[in-house]
Amino acid sequence: MAALHKTGLDQGQINLVAIPDGLADDDDRNDLARLCDGIYSVMPACLEELIGKIRETGEDEITSIIAD
Question: What is the top-level taxon of the source organism (predicted)?
Fold first, then answer.
């Protein structure tokens, strides 16, 4: 977040959140088939859970989601 703050953005405008990709830390992410399987089977439920938690707090409004 420090890099974003230097660009003039107020902290809180952009929240970066990691969502699990379904692979262990030491798994080979160059194995595209395993990576895609992990992403499609794990990420959707994690994203739904994250959105639900954000909505429950009522503090933040989600305006955009960028997945990379």
Answer: Eukaryota
Going by C-beta distance under 8 Å and a sequence separation of 6 or more, which residues neighbour residue 19? Answer: 43, 46, 47, 50, 67
Whether the pTM exceeds 0.90: the reply is no
Query: CB under 8 Å, gap of 24 or more: what pairs does 50-53 form?
Result: 50/17, 50/19
Structure tokens at 34: 């395993």
- Amino acid letter at 3? A
Beta-carbon contacts of 1 under 8 Å, excluding residues fewer than 6 positions away, are: 11, 16
Higher model confidence: residue 34 or residue 6? 34
